[in-house]
User: Fold this.
Amino acid sequence: MQLDHYSTSFTKRTFPITLVSENVTNAPNVGSLFRTADAFGVEQLILCGEHIPLGRKMTKTSRATEKSVNYKISENILDEVSQLKTEGYQIIALEITNKSKPIHTFKFSTKQPIALIIGDENFGVSETILHLCDNVIHVEMYGQNSSMNVVQATTVALYEISNQFL
Assistant:
């Protein structure tokens, strides 16, 4: 028998993970980030950029998770990442670079909180932010495309990170 939202036996947990998005401005993607953050027990979602859509198009995708996810909006990602760094967070970008490591082989430290940085739908994580990161990870892909949707990649990453905290 298929279970509904009220009859699952999932244990609610919150992990020391802050998800920081850099200029993710597509309303359905923002809504999906709320849903993914809720699903994987993210402690906080920081939406960085000048035009973060929080209207009807976003809430259609979020399915009301914006009401349960701790979040804030900030125009300046550099300030946010710098602050997290001074608070002792591991700063980890989800991006494909010449030095990025495949997520399925990466061992996350569970001794300090993690700030996972995700980038703009078209341009990814900026070079400025990449230089502040302690590590850069990527999702290994096996098709001909060299990237996947920012929310899909984030979902894969949060699944892997949260499992390492268990």
Q: What stands out?
A: The chain has one domain: 15-165. Residues 15-165 form a domain with the Alpha/beta knot fold (CATH 3.40.1280.10).
